[in-house]
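Batch manifest, entry 17 of 40.
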Amino acid sequence: MKFVYLAAVLTSLVLFSAGSVQADPVGGPKFDSDLLRPGQTVEYGMALRGEELTLFRVDGDGDGDIDCALFDEDGNAITNDVSGTDGCIMSVTPAWTGRFTVRLVNTGSEASKYTFRAL
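Output type: structure tokens
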């Protein structure tokens, strides 16, 4: 368990040391915890600051397969994490301040209790 925690901390440090200024979404960090059923989609809309790094993280309970994607205000896909797990990590440094949407989809056959964070 200590190794998993250490790996998560090191991953965060690497993501945040990429040369960009880190910033929370406009209005501060976002946090939610809920249940995502098979085939269900949930979206989180928020304003992000231009030229500042924002990290998105989803941690599931291990039962489902949650895929994550980030879209800009025009619906263009910016980045995604479609691994075969119910955990996602995405980061973005937008060129402009604007509205963005994070979409979570449970593509698995089991429901997954998850935690969403935008930092």
